[in-house]
């Protein structure tokens, strides 16, 4: 891990975010350029640069978490944006709470909830 990059785009475990901005994130003594999924199973690169890039396939890793995930914080970038109804319905059907907010707010809220050992995840579009 000395390269400071996600191995195969995935780092097992749960880590707080140390910083965000400049197109990426810092966590676990590493930096990553681009968007991220922070889930109970680990942190992975996420190929979503804006809500327009969001697909069912991009959301699949979130729903694969099963009962380990109760709430997902979706960081939509520098500005808050509305999530299409079809995606909201998928979260409701899976029984996963969803909060949509700016990426910075989502990263900060994730850190707080993670420190409380909550079953939380974050899907963060890089800013």
What distance lies between the first and last C-alpha atoms, to the nearest angstrom?
A: 24 Å
The total count of helices amounts to 3
Mean pLDDT: 93
Alpha-beta classification = alpha+beta
Strand-residue proportion: 25-35%
Order of helices and strands: EEEEEEHEHEHE
Radius of gyration: 13 Å
Strand order of the largest sheet: 1-6-5-9-7-8
- The portion of residues assigned to helices is 10-25%
Organism: Microvirga arsenatis
InterPro entries: MTH938-like_sf, NDUFAF3/AAMDC
Pfam families: DUF498 (PF04430)
Protein name: Mth938-like domain-containing protein
Note down, in words, how this protein is organized.
It comes from Microvirga arsenatis. This is Mth938-like domain-containing protein. The protein has 127 residues and is an alpha+beta fold. The chain contains 3 helices and 9 strands. It has a 6-stranded mixed sheet with strand order 1-6-5-9-7-8, sandwiched between helices. The longest helix is centred in the C-terminal third of the chain and has 13 residues, at 103-115. The model has no long low-confidence stretch (mean pLDDT 93).
Summary?
The protein has helices at 56-63, 85-94, 103-115; strands at 10-12, 17-21, 24-27, 30-33, 35-39, 42-46, 71-75, 97-101, 120-124. By secondary structure, the protein is α+β, with helices and mostly antiparallel strands. The protein has a six-stranded mixed beta sheet, with helices on both faces. A three-stranded antiparallel beta sheet has the order 2-3-4, covered by helices on one side.
């Amino acid at each position: 891990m000395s390269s400071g990059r996600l191995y195969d785009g995935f780092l097992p475990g749960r880590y707080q975010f140390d910083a965000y901005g400049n197109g990426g994130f810092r966590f676990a003594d590493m930096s990553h350029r681009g968007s991220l999924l922070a889930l109970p199973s680990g942190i992975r690169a996420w190929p979503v640069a804006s809500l327009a890039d969001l697909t069912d396939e991009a959301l699949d890793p979130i729903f694969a978490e099963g009962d380990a995930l109760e709430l997902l914080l979706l960081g939509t970038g520098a500005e808050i944006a509305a999530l299409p109804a079809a995606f909201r319905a998928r979260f409701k059907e899976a029984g996963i709470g969803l909060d949509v907010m700016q990426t910075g707010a989502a990263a900060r809220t994730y850190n707080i909830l993670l420190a409380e050992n909550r079953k939380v995840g974050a899907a963060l579009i890089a800013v």
